[in-house]
Amino acid sequence: MKTGIRIGMRAAESRFALRANQGHFRTAALAALCSWAALWIQAFAAAPPRPNVIFIMADDLGYTDLGCYGSRYYESPAIDRMAQEGMRFTSGYTAGPNCQPTRAALMSGQHTARTGVYTVGSIERFNWRSRPLRPVDNVVALDPKTVTIAEALQQAGYKTALFGKWHLGEDAAHHPLAQGFDEAIVSAGRHFDFVTRPKVDSPPGTYLADFLTDKAVDFIRRHKDKPFFLCLHHFAVHSPHQAKSNLVARFQNKPAAGGHNSPVYAAMIASVDESVGRVLATLQELNLASNTLVIFTSDNGGVGGYAREGIQGGSITDNAPLRGGKGMLYEGGIRVPYIFWWPGKIQSAATCDEPIHSVDLYPTLLELAGAKPPAKQPLDGMSYADLLLSGGRSTRERKPLFWHFPGYLGAGGGTWRTTPVGVIRSGDWKLMEFFEDGHLELYNLRADIGEKNNVAFQEQERAVAMHQQLLRWRKEIGAPMPTPNAESGGASPPTERGKTRAGRAARKGNTATTTTE
After folding, report:
1. Residues identified as active-site
2. Quick one: pLDDT at residue 37?
3. What angle do CA 27, 32, 33 make, to 5 degrees?
4. Of 28, 33, 414, 502, which is most buried, counting CB atoms within 10 Å of its CB?
5. Taking residues 344-360, what's their average pLDDT?
6. Which of 495, 450, 166 is nearest to 308 (CA)?
7. What is the pTM of this model?
8. Which pLDDT band, with edges at 50, 70 and 90, does 277 fall under?
9. DSSP letters spanning 223-289
10. Nearest to 64 by CA among 51, 48, 79
């Protein structure tokens, strides 16, 4: 009997111990779960929210066409405020001397030699048959297989939109709606009585810049609670030069200054500036400013500076002290305003002299958004996120900047804005190789921003070294070269293995016009 009692007591003790152990296990598991949850919440709370990005681009706005870049005639108070509260780059470059190649590079993160988009339209736009070389055929739309920056951000959870000029193909397969944008309204060509794709009605007399800004502000309001990527790509200040009469009147009696003298052009800039002001005001109203990066730039240099180069064709503005203008690979054609605004993140009133290029935007936005790069698409640029967040100071070594333009851009009277040319900028130095005869031009941009003194002869060793860099880059990227034009009987282009010819005088007839791309 006592044995049975002892067995029963042991069994009871075992069951009690088991329950106790189970209880301890549950307590430990619950404690571990709570600890993990606390760490997860802490990490989540500490992670910075992904910034909204608004990319505002003017069309044909020159380097000195803003108050914050030196104009004493044009007025741009909202954009000047962006620069005062953010960062202004003094060496911001476009991928091409006109619209389309820059837009392709911004969307793809790739150089023109990869996209094949070198210029606007086909090679038949200008009489290349009168020249020694046949241009490389131009691609007129962005390949639908390209993973655009919009698609990369879309995959990272961003809502995306583009309002304005696209110029990379507007049929169904190439429209921005098929290239990563959730919303898109495309329009260019007219400032009044404009047409949109898809069709959207607007009241008679509506100015395109105002219409596009209305759509941008509406998009911001509808998506204020989630990360968004918004492209506001104005057609202004591109020709035809048309503006709202009340803004034109503001400049009618204003004295000209430094080659800036058109009341209509000034009024067009004022409309773009009003657009920027409305966007910034909307962000502040919705308490989004501290988590929104706003970028302002242009797609190429201003339409001006041609007469000094012997170019026939009118100028609407002047890019001085830069040389030349739109359609040229001199600084006036490819150096543009670049302003970044992000209160609390970007140091106010900062100026950065580090060169940046159109292809750099893609990796920069990927880094800031924590998004993944496309798996099978090489990106040619380098992120400048660290420059933005460090007041313009960076520990990264800036890679050389490259341009490849294997075509012609003509102007009036048989003059030419540019003939086929390759360009490299490394540090303060810029080398240009003109393919028709192979001659080189070398400029120290810090000492000679106007590219007045070709020092290729005096700096032969540097010229040769930079030319070899350019040759290697063209080989690595597979850049196609123009070929001899049998019809003209002209000289063959320089071979990629040919000897560098430094110190030749600058060629004549480098030209541009106001009425073409």
Report:
1. 99, 167
2. 45
3. 95
4. 502
5. 97
6. 450
7. 0.88
8. very high
9. TTTS-EEEEEE--TTSSS----HHHHHHHTTSPPBTTB--HHHHHHHHHHHHHHHHHHHHHHHTT-G
10. 79
- Using DSSP's 3-state secondary structure scheme, residue 133 falls into strand
Q: Around 265, how many Cα atoms within 13 Å sit in the side-chain half-sphere?
A: 24
Are the C-beta atoms of 91 and 354 separated by less than 8 Å? yes
End-to-end Cα distance, the chain: 109
Cβ atoms 50, 223 nearer than 8 A = no
Cβ atoms within 10 A of the Cβ of 489, count?
8
Per-residue pLDDT, averaged over 289-305, amounts to 98
Residue 394: C-alpha distances to residues 53, 173, 298 (Å): 22, 40, 24
Strands 401-405, 421-426: pairing is antiparallel
Helix (H, G, I), strand (E, B) or coil at 444: strand
pLDDT at 244 over 60: yes
On the question of pLDDT at 394 being above 60, the answer is: yes
Q: State how far the Cα of 301 lies from the Cα of 284, in Å rounded to an integer.
A: 31
Q: Which two tokens stand for residue 315?
A: 């100028």
Is the model's pLDDT at 7 over the cut of 70?
no
Which tokens go with 473?
């880059």
Amino acid (one-letter) located at 338: Y
Give the model's confidence band at 490: pLDDT under 50 very low, under 70 low, under 90 confident, else very high. Answer: low
**Angle formed at CA 470 by CA 469 and CA 473, multiple of 5 degrees:** 85
Phi, psi dihedrals of residue 70, rounded to the nearest 5°: 115, -10
